[in-house]
Protein 1
Amino acid sequence: MKDHKEQEAYQLEVRDVHLSFGGLKALNGVSTGVKRGEIFSIIGPNGAGKTCLLNCINRFYRPEKGRIMFEGRDISRLKVHKIAALGVARTFQNVELFGHMTVLDNIRLGGHVHLKSGSIAGGIYFGKARNEEMAFRRHIEERIIDLLEIEQIRKKTVHTLPYGLQKRVELARALAMKPKILLLDEPATGMNLEETEDMARFILDINEEWGVTIVLIEHDMGVVMDISDRVCVLDFGQKIAEGKPREIRHNEQVIKAYLGEEDLAYSRLGA
Amino acid sequence: MDILLQVLVTGIATGGVYGLIALGFVLIYKATSILNLATGAFMTLGAFVCLSVMTGAGAPFWAALLATLVFAVVLGLVIERVILRQLIGEPIISVIMVTIGLAFILQGLAHMIWSPDYRSFPEIFPPEPLDLGFAVVPSGLLWGFIFALIGTFIFILIFKFSRTGVAMRATANDQQAALSMGISVRRIFALSWCFGAIAAVIGGVVIGNISGISIYLGDIGLKVLAVIILGGLDSIGGAILGGFIIGILENLAGIYIDPLVGGGAKGVAPFFILVLVIMVRPYGLFGKEIIERV
């Protein structure tokens, strides 16, 4: 009974998801769930299937078996572009921005999904579509740009920006979708210490001020352990642990997955 | 001097028409990275459909043009749906080869339906040429130019300012990101093929008006290929400017070089310039330079 209640509390739930590429089992029966309003991290060694899982949630991949429920609805058979409209936004491991457009245009495209007028009427900015667009623009200009501190670069073409800022713009674009849940694929990779700290602060702000649920893949353990409510550990396509950061930190299986069998002995000796 | 001005004016008018047809290539290439070598065949079919509606059903030109546009949309949708969607994920070069095959099939179809006879459009526009004082523009070319300009202008408006256009640009830039923004990439592909087909059939009708219709009308598509490679495959501005450059150059060559070499220069000049430009700028004048940083 208690178990049942727990399941209902999940905003996003992954049930027994299988995915393979040829003979390689990328995901082998992964089940987990994300509660509304939490910061949920997925960690694991390279090739553990973290991004695969994100791609399944986001419907870039279609799992062979298993279901993915978002707010009580099975989304694993939906069309890819429908996922965004449900309120699922994401960023990518290798920044996927519209490089030849300005920062502002990129952010505006994030709002694409929320312009409700039909495609013909909305085809050209008139009437309803125009008003929605204007209201939307004000909204994003005030809040997102402020929050992510990208005021100075709004008119810049994206591919001229340094990597750290591009990551920030990508986050801004995802936010412009006014998502209920935000999937972040290694937002702090390739950043220096200061940029990483900024990014962690942004994620916390988005989570707290905007009430957006965060699913985070990150290799920087400092960030993960600092900001996560719960952590899920994948290894070779299987979930090996899940729990609060401090539980994960001392979980033997996790340490083994990261350091290998022999090093575990040393690390225990060291401790 | 008079001749020079006349040549320039003729060149610009021709170039406008090339620019519109070039858009047919570019709109499809930008969104889908496919070079549609069946563009010429689209033109031929468009011209024939327009002519048939006019002579067969006795419809006025505007109605025939409308019918041709509807035909273009259907043609674009069917080809995208039936042929190209099956080829998603295949190497680009095979897809391009398929469009060549498609060109032959469509041309054969035109041959079967309309026979290879040469035909001319009924008189649609007032036949008086426009006298600019320093140069004279023949009626067909003048109206063709006007049509091409309107078409080009509409396409640019859509592409630059409409939501659909923004979605097309986004798709062209990064399909994954576009998908994650809630843009249906399939719908954008279908739309691009429709737009491409529309640009091509308008071009076909215009060319048919200027120089008559035969199943070889679409051969001009090859010359337009030079235009887009010159301008940059993925640049709308490049397509238009490239159209003018090729239009002017071939007319200049026709007047000044043809007499010296005994003819033929008009046909060769565009390609000669093309080779020179490509040697200096392999991505075309305005094409996106793809720089891989490793």
Note: Chain B has a mean pLDDT of 88.
Protein 2
Amino acid sequence: MDILSSLAIVTLAGLVHASFQLSVSVLTLLSGHTIGAKRSHAKLLRLTSSFIFGTGLMTVLLLSFTSLVLLNIFGKNAPQLIWAMACGLMIGVAIAIWAFYYRHEKGTTLWIPRSMATYLNKRTKLTKLSGEAFGLGLSSVVGEILFIIAPLFISALVLIQLPAIWQLIGIVIYTLVSMLSIITVWVLIGSGHTLARIQQWREANKHFMQFTAGAGLIVLGFFVYVYQVLGSSVGVI
Amino acid sequence: MVQAVDIIKHGGSRPTEKFLRDKLRSSLVAACLSTKAPEGQAEAAADAVCDKVIIWLQQRPEVTSHDIRVVAARHLKSFHPEAAYLYEQHKITI
């Protein structure tokens, strides 16, 4: 696979990752609690920046770790079976997103168990230090690992084929693109937009986001299957 | 003055507790401040909503915390719709 196609796949996978909402929900709550507790705007920016740094770092670590594991097991060229499995994983996760990602109730309640949601809510309320916000950012990425695993896995498979410098560039691209949604919310909060308007937008467009995340994964799965699995088979014949 | 009202916590997993006006007030003030309302306006709205919730509680020996949230949000809507929206959304954001 050439470098341009590889980076295009990584970018689309990053966009799918960006449409997952746990980090955005936690960031919205964190901002709400911080403003509601009459803390300064500088404190708000410190906490939210630390949170975003935490999500970015965890994304880098997860993608690097997955790539390293795949590289150690398969070397630079993973077998066709693994590519086919990755495509199956993407289709399966896409269907799961359409079916389960949002609960069928008011607000933007996600699939995560209610006990975990309550814990995150309490933890967010208790967050006063930048270090705590950083930890919250790390855990909000891990909390969505069941859905993130699909774009992460295909990105890792694509990245291990590339030369080392392009692998680094790919990791940076994936991380930045996957953080687009929280960076957007962070900028909106920092520039004075009210949380109510941000949350209203999220609630009004949640089904659209859910649909695009699932559709993005299906398109990606189909493309990779045709390009990497069928393309190689035809090439062999 | 409100009679002693038992508040049944969400899901019944935690023990009931007595209604505390200050606890309700501080959550309403926080919701108003989250929408960048001035502090005075936030406190005035919270006091007015607390009064209305207490009137609603007069005839009820026990209610759930969810009931209080719904009633408080309904009254807050007339003072500050954005704050009422955030107050409603607090438990259903994640």
Note: Chain B touches chain A at residues 11, 29-31, 33-36, 39, 82-83, 85-86, 88-94 (CB under 8 Å).
Protein 3
Amino acid sequence: MKFKSLIITLLASSIFLTIIICIWKILATLQGLNFTNLNFNLNLSLSIGLIITCVFIGKKFNHNLKIFILSLLFTILYTFLNENSPMWFSVGIFLLILFFTNKLKKYDLEYLNQDFISEKIVFEFLSLFAIVFFALVILFPFYIMFVTSFKTQTALLIDPIDLSIDFSKNIYEIFKSYFVIFKTYDFGRYILTSSYVSVGTVLITLLFAIPAAYAVARLNFFGKTFLSTSILIIYMFPAIVLVIPLYTVFSQLGLRNSVEGLLIVYTATTLPVAIYMLQGYFKSIPKEIEEAGLIDGQNWFGIIIKIIIPLSLPAIASVSLYVFMIAWNEFLFSLMFLDNPKTFTLSRAINHLTGDAETPRQYLMAGSVVVTLPILLIFIYFEKYLVSGLTAGGVKG
Amino acid sequence: MSSTLSKIERRTAYTLLLPAVCLVFAIILFPIFANVWISFKEVGLKDIRIPEPRAKKIVKNIQDSNFELKIIYKLRNSSLIQDIREVRFSDKLPKNIKPVNLDKRCEFKSQKVKCFFGNWEAGYRENFEIFVKNVNNNSIKSEFLKSNKPDLKGKSNNILLTTDFTLKNFKNVFINNNFFELLMTTFYFTFFGTLGAILLGIFAAQLVNQKFYGRTFMRSILLFPYVGPVVALAYTWTLLLDPNSGTINSLLVNYGVIEKPINLLGQKYLIINILGFELKLRLALTTVIFFEIWRYFPLAFLFILARLQAIPRDLYEAADVDGAGPFRKFFYITFPQITAILSILFMIRFIWNFNKFEDIFLLTGGASGTLTLPISVYQQGFAVSNIGMGSAVSIVIVLLLITFMIIYFKLIGKKANEI
């Protein structure tokens, strides 16, 4: 029993350690270090050695001192056995090992002797691995997007792996891509258009959705059940089946290449979900409050403005943020409706940049950062509201 | 009394609903029905523009004369396909200026040259000239004449409103365009994209449902791929996967994993040899599916996490007493609790992935075996410029979609309300 769990601990933890060291090495390669071999076997044997020592020492020694000495030894050995690596790389290795041995704190021979322990151990390292995996898989593209925007065309051609930012250059040189996209490619205007369209969509959607949602939530009328089911069904129809008729009609009406046309379409496509989300919240407001308003002589307009809206601000915030995100990120309609660079939104402008194969990739990435950063910042700041918006409207996407 | 009250209530409800319903009707429902109309017509992208009579005005001096000028109107029918009927022309001349030897089709009244040109066939062109002179025999400034623009009017058919129908588009969709392969690619993409996103979502939700340092941070970043704009993310991935100096290919070559860069997005098949068997993998399609999974697993994660957090704690405590490990707890307690939400998620995500356009369009544009039905709508309508065909494909999508929805409501419609 003891032997089995020891082997499992060894396998799980050493593979995990090897993988995180390899990931660190790959990330270091992207900073311009010239590694060409991951030394998987060497890493694995070093890791096994480390873990065996760690487990056998167990709690016989002061924990902090133990992990510090072990990490230092491992780092020195690792640096010695590997190709020449700079100080910061070794420091990274040291911190990784420190973190790892700290995780191994409770693992000693006594702990491994418990019942059903092997399943727990595998699960624990699988979870650790999952954290690293998800963080890497998600953040890596964002990291590449960000870092590439600071490179120059020649540097990227000479060594596509080296994505380090050269801080010895002056600020203008470092941020050159951003200066270029704002000056030559007119991104300032696109940011304004995108903001105008997104904020406009939010306002018009709320203007239309709040009364409609109130009617669905509170009033009795013929065809109410039909309407509430059709809201969801309409919501299921994708933009791609609307595109051709809208394109033809908008062309004939001269609404193509106009921001107003885009506003109408965005509002209509987000309305069903906005109504759906708001009516759910309105239903949760106690009816007695409105009845009090009715006795005070308010009509429905007064009730909506003075009672419903102030009470449902969180839901309105969720809807607004969700609609803002949809409008800001929207691509299909802006591709179809906008041909004139003067009316481009950010998404359309970036797509337009790629139309020219000569556009250097750092400009493309700088544009991508410009369109991504605002929405990510808004998401992080208002996460609570946006998450509830996503959950309610998230069936679509 | 109560009937008047309910009447007022009903009227209020309709007033409140009217703007939203009208807008949704005009922008969503009307186009869905308009698709049916257009799909039975032979319409190209060029036909959409209503034909207009056009004129370009050029003023020329005449040699040996200071008092006479020649005005040339370059007339044309803007459409190369359709006729214009009853074309009327009028242009105002400045004071004291008068046409000489006016064309038979025209008359001069109250300083205006008015002409009736009759019918212009498709692609009609004519250089129409008039000579003008000053009544007082003074010289004329040509800028003076140029300032006024001629006014042209004509009648033409809007091809969208005529009643000639054809079945040609549907014949093309089902017979000539490899419809079966198109459908299979769409289903392959949809099925694996949905399945992968849900599996990854289960892992992520299970992970975030545990306690560990940095859990809230993890929860935020897990939603990044979905919150970020599709354009930026798709182009970042295109650059990452680029065969010439893309980061991932360069890294793989650098570490000797592969000898030559692989064109992950541009290669239709990858032939893999396993124990002598040759396996043909749809490479570009698989890459696109992976992008799809990467971008949409956050939604599955969000839903599953919400469900996981609602599972009563004592179930797990009871399992602890029985000595069940984490895997057993997952399969015997967690999994049965989330099957309902998983089936709903699968259906909804299936419908949405089935309609996905932007992701594939931005990554491959439908090339290298990644052509799905939504991409086909765009290709037929705008690349091949056949609006009718595009609409016919849209109709196919709508019909399949309605089928899915019926299945959805039959299977789990009731369950969805319970959750």
Note: Chain B touches chain A through 95 residues (CB under 8 Å).
Protein 4
Amino acid sequence: MIERRPIADFVGHLILIVTVLIVAFPIYLAVIAASHDLAGISQVPMPLLPGSEFFTNMANALLEGPKIVGVGRGTSALLLMSNSLIMAISIAVGKIIISLLSAFAIVYFRFPLRTFFFWMIFITLMLPVEVRIIPTFKVVADLGLLDTYTGLVLPLIASATATFLFRQFFMTVPDELVEAARIDGAGPMRFFWDVLVPLSRTSIAAMFVIQFIYGWNQYLWPLLIAAAPEYQTIVLAIGRLMRAPDAYEEWPLIMAMAVLALLPPVVVVVLMQRWFVKGLVETEK
Amino acid sequence: MKSAGKLARAAVTLLAGTAILAGAGQALAQDNRIEIHWWHAMAGARGELLNQLVEGFNKGQDKYKVIATNKGNYPEAMTAAMAAFRAGKAPHILQVFEVGTGTMMASRAAIKPVYQLMQENGYKFDPSTYITSVTGYYSTSDGKMLSYPFNSSTPIMYYNKDAFAKAGLDPEKPPRTWQEFEPALKKLKESGSTCPFITSWQTWVHLENFSALHNVPFATKANGLDGLDTELKFNSPLHVRHITTLANWMKEGLMVYGGRKNEPNGKFASGECAILMESSAGYASFTKAPFKWGMAMLPYYSDVQGAPQNSIIGGASLWVMARHTPEEYKGVAQFFDYLAATENQVFWHTKSGYLPITPMAYETTKSSGFYAANPGTDVSVRQMTLNPPTENSKGLRLGNFVQIRDVMDEELEAVWSGKKQPKEALDTAVERGNRLLRQFERDVKR
Amino acid sequence: MEKRVVFHNKYLPYLLVAPQIAITVIFFFWPASQAIVQSVLREDAFGVSSHFVGLDNFIALFEDEYYLNSFKVTALFSTLVTVIGLSLSLLLAVTADRIIRAATLYKTFLIWPYAVAPAVAGALWGFVFLPGPGIVAYLLQQMGVDWNFHLNGAQAMFVVVVAATWKQISYNFLFFLAGLQSIPKSLIEAAAIDGAGPVRRFWTIVLPLLSPTLFFLIVVNVVYAFFETFGVIHSLTRGGPAKATEILVYKVWYDGFEAQDLGGSSAQSVILMAIVIGLTVIQFRYIERKVHY
């Protein structure tokens, strides 16, 4: 930097370290809570050091978790997690595909209904599924999609965030590339596959992270759509444990399942953070 | 940057893999039995007990197969069923919490009353073989059962015997009246307790059950059982007196507020609070508590005539949804008959802590020595059956009851935080509640 | 914002937008139109009997002091979440930008709350602030604070703001940091040579150059606070005490799900949709042209 200021550097590190500690604190507590038994965690104030029950609780969450939330016997939390994974990946991939295509059409073509479609898509930008959930359920039921992955996934693909970001990114792609492609005699789809998609790699990666997390964290929608045990997800299971009637909250188990539910999205974010940020920021310019 | 593409490919492969796995899992169980779907809200240990009951039924005959599915908590399960009914996909049986009773009844075309279901399928239905203070909540005023009481409980008092001993109170003689309460709380406080008294479900305990126990109306028209044109009555001088007492206790640090639902349970379980009022079904929360504790009936004002009358229930009942085939209804009736069998009642009552619904089940449990071995577990049943229920203590049937409870909670919280006087708060709650009742009445009659 | 060079094809563009449009129409516009229909009806919970009531549901809403209250709560909540979240993360980003070598490490540690489900985030913070065993609640009580967010509206607001900000702070931080790192160092050096100190440099050079990022983040954060914090509110305060934390989306959900008042809830959905459409139009028509990227 401009001035060398050891004291300022020190203060800077201090601020960041303290923030990191504060930010990580609730997650640390989750792990701590997952390492005690119920009596241990109910002390006042709660313990701040790990107990000895971590592996018991984790095993319990993995093997008994689904049974405890009434999801059915013989299944393990792995089934719940694989459902979450299917949902998260399908939503992410589905959104990316349809959004790339529609953003391509809107940016690179001129056609009579363009503005109309543009608005139609962008109006859906912000309205979450929660506020129109009952009529949406009816549509899914009428289409016979209850208790299917399609029913879980398809309606959540109807949002404009990805289209919005790809559109923004395509705007920054230099026009010369199109001209060059034209001169080479490449058609629009050739240009799309060979030039645009590879160029959008980082945006796609960023979108993947955002949508993966969005899909993974869904609660209300799978709750309504999935009646059969085979389609339950892990976040759903935690929600159930936390709000079961007349039950006391088994914090160690809840937190152990929370740790399980946290792992995949955290891994995705941390591993992909480089592309995540870059993709979003590039798009923004 | 290449690895982004690799990652995507890996993701797709993984996706395909898991889809196949899931498909294989589904193909496993196939049989030709008639399926009966039951949506419920039980999770944890009770969800497991429920599954055992269902399994017993499914093994005991080969015509029907009950499939029990947890659909979230009570409101979530109810909304799921509402949405499903509109789409023609409703389950056969739906577990609905007691405050949803008014809403279910108002949708006559969407439900099939249980007494009718049993009659049509050849089951003799005799209301007198049930504990009426339990079934009354879910029956018409002439005793016809509309929904099947599945998990019922009633509020009781839990107290920390160690804390009592420390405060110089007799651990075997908890205060029986509200008048005896104050000196006991003071002693607890003097002995160092930071939380002598706390309550879960404040409206259910201190307004609804309080009314029933003192045999005063909570609402007109037999608390709504006799008609939709009911009006709330919980702003009487007696109610104001009680809320004022509690408010004073909070000011003096004799009582602590811990939330609307059962959040306070944790504070009792940890030993922080000495006395807790909570559902009788909550006792499993305290089995691991590191101190001795006991259960007792709710206190009453000894100068009120007719007190203690009897307490009323909470919990949930099973409603049968309309628009299914007679064949399926036959299975539902058979399943209900199975649930009412004494052995299953005893199983459910003793394991889950919910109330039995037949006197037979109670007697059988008693003679099995269960209550003697687990002292206090019969407090709830005894409190429920102190006296034959009057029109003030049969139950409550109010439309928009979920919102009315929230209104009461809000107004009580305004008292606890010192923003409102008890009288003012209860008057406002009654007025706001009555507005909700009128809105419901209009909607139903339209 | 238009491309000068485009492709020409009569059918292809329709084919390309078809999947997106189909899904949007089936799962967004169709249900939304159902919500509009529902908003002029009164129905029992199961939809067996329904009656047209005109605008009664809307009139009832605007006569409901708690509905108006939830607008105020939403405004307060989203302002707090946006302002606190952005200032904190800007401070962090500026700090991290100074010590670039360790920045990646800090980034990694700061990013994960973004991945936590709102409901789980709510549970975690609820656990921290739980009067009694909750560790922060315990410390506050030791310091003599009468801590009980079940009773005190301001404390409840504080708790939901903390939880909501916590989830968003990493996202903001990453954008600010990337924005800062893309500012040409030569500009800052030039200013330093002219004798501008760090604070002055920040206000006169860094912040203006950061304005597109700032604007983008304001939009993202407001939308986040409006709609995506439902899970946080639901698991922490359920809108209470006395509706002190009842934001609009929570009320829509409450009236529809808990109170089973579909008419009233749909009317609120319609109003929300109108607000969202309005905001979107403003964003695209007006603001996007004013802020130069």
Note: Chain A has a mean pLDDT of 82.
